[in-house]
Amino acid sequence: MKVNISDFFVENTIVSTTEQDVVYDLPRDKVQEVWDKLSVYYTEKSQEENRSEILVEDFYRLLAHAKVENETAVEAFGLVKRKVLSCYEASDAKEQKVNIKRVILGDVMNILKQRMSELLENIEKEKQIYSRLSMINADVKIVDGSLRVCTTPFSFVTLEQILDDKNEGLTCILKYKSREYKGHCAYPKGKFCIVDIASLEGTFKRHNVEISIKNEFADSKHPICTAIIKELCKGTSIDLILNNVHVLLSRWHLDEVCKNTLRKFIVQTDAKKLIDGFSSVFYVLTDVSVIKVSRSECDFSIRLNGVEVFN
Fold it and tell me: Angle, nearest 10°, between helix axes 238-258 and 223-233?
């Protein structure tokens, strides 16, 4: 007699559940469970009894694949040898994610803008040089960063700077202790010069500072020296400059120490304020170091992480 189980209620077994649904399965009787266990048992037993034959078949299959790969490699190398194919080394592209803070991005952009302005300035200088050289109808090449003018097929002249026939202006030679700085500045005109140029020439000394003003040309433009010439032409007293030039030098050398840092924060103290707006003793915090700048009446020192780098 056949019995249709759909006519009778049979409680299903819960297999698993999710947030959206419940998975059921029909209950298994003892005969089905025994049958499944016997099937697994005899399958494993058959595989164990025929293990040697299975290994032999796997081995022959492996040999067949190796033969195909070997023949393919021989054909491929033959094509490479006959220059029909070319070999290229390929590497996996590694993707690396880096999180960069906005402050660092801002500092990097400022450095890029500064370098871009320097690049544009140098491009303008090159244009001026090439416009001058075009008048002599000679081949010009840039080799190892030097500008070469070919005079003959076998000789050339290296140019560093093109100057006017007559270079007029003042040269300032600044000596501070054992160091010397030199800068040239053309004669300021109009409202930028209210004194007689001839009256500015001479040598002036005070404490560790010596300033010499000469009416001659110098192939150097140190910013502090050119600033001294411009201030003298405006009528600034040489005594005021001698008393404060060490302050300008401290700031210039501080910029040299910090020029490769991305970030810097200035921490001022309660000490006396000087002409640059900073206290006589202040600190500069960078991403890797602490810099202490001390300025006295006629001297200054710079310490990097406690080590004196300038005095």
Answer: 160
* Mean pLDDT (the chain, rounded): 79
The domain locations on the chain are: 103-159, 170-236, 259-310
Q: How confident is the model at residue 145 (pLDDT cuts 50, 70, 90)?
A: low
For 266-295, letters b (16+ CB in 10 Å) and e give: eeeeeeeebeeebbbebebebeeeebbbbb
Q: Which amino acid is at 3?
A: V
Return the structure tokens found at 88: 């290229």
Convert the pLDDT of each residue in 241-264 to its tens digit: 888 888 888 888 888 888 777 677
> What is the rounded CA–CA span in Å between residue 108 and residue 193?
39
DSSP E strand boundaries for 167-270: 170-176, 179-185, 202-206, 209-214, 264-268
